[in-house]
Amino acid sequence: MIKSILEAFVQILRVLVGILMGALIIPVGMQVISRYTGIIPVFLWTEELSTFIFVWIVMIGSMIAVWEGTHFDVRVIPDAKSPLGQLLQDGSVLALVAVFALLFSYYGASYAQFGYIQNSPMMRANLAITHSSVLFAGLGWSAFALYRFYEVVARYLQRRKEPQ
Q1: pLDDT at residue 14, rounded to an integer
Q2: Which helix (H) or strand (E) element contains residue 71?
Q3: For residue 82, how far is the Cα from the chain centroid?
Q4: Which of 92, 83, 99 is nearest to 138 (CA)?
């Protein structure tokens, strides 16, 4: 049940990243055209908008990567052979990811509040738009890392019950 909800959420995130990537083409394209052709005037708000979009793409992309197990995990030692070794190896990485994700969530709330009292210089957009991405990503990383940790422990318990 929980896994299907999380997978549906990740699918929504994937679609959202695709939409944001498509949307990023507009301000960046305007910047390129204005700087190198002179056909349209230089709009400074396009730089801010592209930065806002890019921040969200990075944060959402990192959430997807945590779900897929392709982020924050660099193997510097060979994979463990025993079930306990695999639990310690995979579990320690996921536990650290979860701890840092919870820290991002906790401090991301204050960071979003700080952004709420500011506006961007060109677009006059509230900076909570980008500052809240830290909180959102931290919550996503936390949920995904904790669920993956649960899976690692369940896999260990299952392998321990199997006859050798």
Answers
A1: 98
A2: none
A3: 31
A4: 99
Structural domain span for residue 9: 2-161
3-class secondary structure, 40: coil
Strand positions, DSSP E, 47-131: none
Mean pLDDT of 28-39: 89
- Phi and psi, residue 126, nearest 5°: -65, 130
Q: What is the pLDDT of residue 38?
A: 79
Residue type, 150: Y
Q: Would you say 40 and 30 are in contact if contact means Cβ atoms under 8 Å apart?
A: yes
pLDDT in tens, 64-105: 999 998 876 677 778 888 889 889 998 998 999 999 999 999
Radius of gyration, alpha carbons of the chain:
20
For 108, residues 6+ apart whose C-beta sits below 8 A from its C-beta are: 132, 134, 135, 136, 137, 138, 139
- Residue 119, classed as helix, strand or coil, is strand
What is d(CA 60, CA 56) in angstroms, rounded to the nearest whole number? 6
Domain count, the chain: 1
Per-residue pLDDT of 123-142, as tens digits, reads 899 999 999 999 999 999 99
Encoded tokens for 117: 């009292």
Distance of CA 147 to the CA centre of its chain: 15
The structure's pTM equals 0.89
